[in-house]
Amino acid sequence: MTAPLPADLFGYVDLLPPEEQQILSRVRSFAEEQIAPIADAYWDRAEFPHELIPGFAELDVVGLAREWPDRPAYSRLLTSFVSMELSRVDPSMATFFGVHAGLALTSIDLCGSPEQKDRWLPAMRRMERIGAFALSEPHGGSDVAGGLETTARREGDEWVLDGAKRWIGNGTFADLVIVWARDVADDSVKGFVVEKDMPGFTATKMEGKLALRTVQNADLTFDGVRVPEANRLPGAQSFADTNRVLRVTRGGVAWNAVGAMAGVFELARDYAVERVQFGQPIASFQLVQDHLVSILGAVVASLGMAVRVAQMQDDGTFRDEQAALAKRQATLMLRDAVARAREVFGGNGILLENKVGRFFNDAEALYSYEGTKEINTLVVGRAVTGIGAFVGRRPAKH
């Protein structure tokens, strides 16, 4: 059985059956024993700990929600708790895992042919081939659905890709990159699997990041990259198909936020109990307890929403606006939670050795990626009113 986390006051982890709790316990041990001791150093250097990948692979937690010949499908609730456990220790490593096991693997699983699934998914499950997901562009973030500039044109049995992508997690070392491009023939959005050694494909690490520094975000360029028809995902024929992938993964960002909040709660609580000022632990001061309980309330409230999203994914009743609201609210509360935790530490909170500053910075990335607050607000607003408030309009091209 998985021991309850201090921040899981209502015992949501007990919703998992014993077998899934055992899997989660292995993930927790790996995060605490292997990731935690090196997380600060790699974050500080903005480098990725490739030596952890074999340990990740041994956990066998990639693709938990799909059925494999030698392994049953587990619940979305379990996969979500895995994201939470990783984020509780290091949101950067949770993001790495989410890009590979979430966005990249899900793209092939939802949009790929049976042959493509057989070709790539087993190696991705074993983490022998790492995936990335390339949608955002230098000129397109929130409006990328209507403004995709990367193009694809067919020449015989090949497709020629031209353009650029930005903010691509795992991009510097991924073996397989899921690239979304606009077909010049019919203006539709299609998905392609670009392999890292294809001529004309370049990945350049983005420097100077202040959040999720361990994640290797990259600028990607495609200069006449020739991709065989066998690497085109046949189930990706429009942006609606892209959104099918995002629907599955967006709720996961709420779990990342919950995990980060749980992590800073533990850090702040432990520090408050140990730190003595005015002759007594600062945990004995009412204002400090207010911070701790406010953080705890944010964790529990967000966790309840995130659990329900995962349950609805499992029973097939999940809708876009539910993921949007969970992501919006959890990351809003995360921002407040990390600020309160940093305040409990006082000046010590800005020292990397105390870890809370790392979470403080990482929260800003979680707040923005996979749908900003504003975009998610409009998604939910349209659902509850029946009226779309998206008023931006792309100017005509000349």
Keywords:
398 residues, alpha+beta, Butyryl-Coa Dehydrogenase, subunit A, domain 1, Butyryl-CoA Dehydrogenase, subunit A, domain 2, Butyryl-CoA Dehydrogenase, subunit A, domain 3, 3 domains, eight-stranded mixed sheet, two-stranded antiparallel sheet, 11 helices, 10 strands, 51% helix, 14% strand, globular
Question: Could you walk me through the main structural features you see in this protein, from its secondary elements to its overall organization?
Answer:
The protein folds into three domains: 12-125, Acyl-CoA dehydrogenase/oxidase, N-terminal domain (Butyryl-Coa Dehydrogenase, subunit A, domain 1, Orthogonal Bundle); 131-237, Beta Barrel (Butyryl-CoA Dehydrogenase, subunit A, domain 2); 240-385, Butyryl-CoA Dehydrogenase, subunit A, domain 3. The N and C termini lie far apart (63 Å). It is of the alpha+beta class and 398 residues long. It has helices spanning 18-45, 53-59, 76-89, 91-111, 114-125, 144-147, 239-274, 286-315, 320-345, 356-368, 373-385, and strands at 131-134, 151-155, 158-168, 176-183, 189-195, 201-205, 218-228, 232-233, 276-277, 280-281. The strands form two sheets. Strands 1, 2, 3, 4, 5, 6, 7 and 8 form an eight-stranded mixed beta sheet that branches. A two-stranded antiparallel ribbon has the order 9-10. It is built from eleven helices and ten strands.
